[in-house]
Amino acid sequence: MRLVKFVEFSRKIVAVGKNYAAHIKEMGSEVPSKPVFFLKPATAYVTEGNPIKIPKGCTELHHEVELGVIIGRKACDVEEKDAMDYVGGYTVALDMTARDWQLDAKSAGLPWSLAKGFDTSCPVGQFIPKEQISDINSLPLWCKVNGQMRQNGNTKDMILKVPFIVSYASNFFTLEPGDLVLTGTPSGVGQVKAGDCIEAGLGDIVKIKFDVVNKEK
Ligand SMILES: O=C([O-])CC(=O)C(=O)O
Ligand SMILES: [Mg+2]
C-alpha cells in the first residue's frame, strides 16, 4: 500500500456527525437512527502556519476537534471486517462550524454546506501512519482555546467505530487514497473569535495550533 503523505491535501473530506452522546446532548439533539454524513470540499483544508478565517457574515464560529482517518487505498463497498485494510493513517482535525448558519439550515431543512464547508473549515495536522497508534479506540482527543481546555474527550466514546464508518461511507462515496474521514466531535464545542489561538491533539501523538482571524476579502 502506498501511504499517502498528508501534505497532499487535495482530496475530499467525508464527515460523520453526531457520533458522541455528550455532544449530541449539548446540541439538544437526539441519537440519529442512521449515520449522519456530510462533505467538505478540498478547499476547506488549512495547514499549520496559516490561519483559520472566520467567513464573512458568520457570527458564531465553533471548534469541533475530531479524529481524522486518512484513506490509504481505494475503498468501494468494503465490508466492515476488511475496512481497516483501507486505512493508511490518522491525524487530528478541526471540523470548524459556522454554528449560526448551521442552526438556520437545520431549522429550514436545508444543507449544511456553507456552515461546514467554507475555506479553512478543516484545519489538519500531520499524517500518522496507522502502525504508530496501538489502539485507535482509546485515544484522548482534546482542544484548548487560548490555553484553556474546552474539549477533553476520548475516542472510546465514539458511537460508530472507525471500521464501521469507513465501510458504511464506502457504500456511497468511493473513498480514495488521501481522502480524510472525520469521525465526529466529543462535547465541549464552543465559539472562537478573531485573535484566539486553538490548539488540539490526539493525546500527545499529534498536535496542531492555529490562529483565528476574520476573513478580509
Ligand atoms: O455539527 C454537528 O454537531 C455535527 C458534527 O459535525 C459532529 O457531531 O461532529
Ligand atoms: Mg463535526
TrEMBL record:
Reaction catalysis annotation: acetylpyruvate + H2O = acetate + pyruvate + H(+); oxaloacetate = enol-oxaloacetate; a 3-acylpyruvate + H2O = a carboxylate + pyruvate + H(+); oxaloacetate + H(+) = pyruvate + CO2
Which Pfam families does the record match to this protein? FAA_hydrolase (PF01557)
Keyword list (alphabetical) reads: Metal-binding
Q: Name one GO biological process term.
A: carboxylic acid metabolic process
**A GO cellular component annotation in the UniProt record:** mitochondrion
Question: Sorted alphabetically, which SUPFAM superfamilies does this protein's record hold?
Answer: FAH
GO terms of molecular function? acetylpyruvate hydrolase activity; acylpyruvate hydrolase activity; metal ion binding; oxaloacetate decarboxylase activity; oxaloacetate tautomerase activity
Q: What is its EC number?
A: 3.7.1.5, 4.1.1.112, 5.3.2.2
Domain Fumarylacetoacetase-like C-terminal spans what residues?
12-212
Tell me which stretches of the chain form a coiled coil.
none
What NCBIfam families does the annotation carry? PRK10691.1
- Give the protein family: Belongs to the FAH family.
- The name this protein carries in UniProt is Oxaloacetate tautomerase FAHD1, mitochondrial
Organism of provenance: Dinothrombium tinctorium
